[in-house]
Amino acid sequence: MSFRPALIIATVLAAWSAAATAETIKIGVTPGPHAQIFEAVKPIAAKQGLDIQLIEFSDYVVPNAALDAGDIQANSFQNQPYLDNQKADRGYKIEAVGLTVNFPIGVYSKKHKAFADIPDGGKVSIPNDPTNGGRVLLLLRDKGAIKLKDGVGFKPTVLDITENPKKLKFVEVDAAQAPRALDDVDAAAINTNYATQAGLDPVKDPILREDPKGPYVNLIAVRAADKDKPWVKTLVDAYHTPEVKEFVLTKFKGAVLPSW
């Protein structure tokens, strides 16, 4: 009769001990899919002794500054070209430790059903950071709307446009403000997380959509000094699970694509 209560007590103590010894890390994410995916990662990581606290940032600038300063231990919001650009410009000692998902960027319009319908001299808004603005220009080049200088790499700017048959006017806006620009332009390039926040369907609504293959897969980043710590492997392994992949595929229905 005394065995069962003793077993219950032992189980409770073991659970309490695991909770007491769990390592807590703060991860910076942008609202929307990145935050939602990490909510699915949290219970998996918790079973491995890693307590994840999510800190949401409303833009693409602060998460790397916060990581570099040590205010958070990791972030999940960016791709490699963007991280490389931030490191070159700001000297951050930050490294990618695992790939996450891909968000094909889309061009949306409230005024036109096809990009070809945009009139000569039409306004097109693009993100004002070099990486996301550049990927939109590459998208437009690939679709035949403009031509760019040879050798522009992943970060062309409007100054690299060599041919612009429709004389499109490019308006650079903060990526987070792109949905608001829709009323004022003929078309707006909007990152998937901001599109979903604005109620847009990133699969059905774009009049142009980026090829999901390419260099723009998102990643988990940590400080270079932390990259070999055990919790980093635990974090990446928790993300790269079949459960998280199934969550991404079911939740986002093709708007967000797993990269593992």
From TrEMBL:
Q: What is the lineage of its organism?
A: Bacteria, Pseudomonadati, Pseudomonadota, Alphaproteobacteria, Hyphomicrobiales
What is the residue range of the signal peptide feature? 1-22
User: Pfam families given for it?
Assistant: Lipoprotein_9
Question: Quick check: keyword Secreted in the entry?
Answer: no
Task: Kindly indicate whether the keyword Manganese belongs to this entry.
Answer: no
**Per UniProt, what is the membrane topology?**
Lipid-anchor
Tell me which family the UniProt entry assigns to this protein.
Answer: Belongs to the NlpA lipoprotein family.
Q: Which UniProt keywords apply?
A: Lipoprotein, Membrane, Palmitate, Signal
Stored SUPFAM superfamilies: Periplasmic binding protein-like II (SSF53850)
Cell compartments where the protein resides = Membrane
Q: Which organism is it from?
A: Bradyrhizobium hipponense
What does UniProt give as GO cellular component?
A: membrane
User: What name appears for this protein in its UniProt entry?
Assistant: MetQ/NlpA family ABC transporter substrate-binding protein
Q: Per its UniProt record, what CDD domains does this chain match?
A: PBP2_lipoprotein_IlpA_like
Q: Which InterPro entries match?
A: Lipoprotein_NlpA
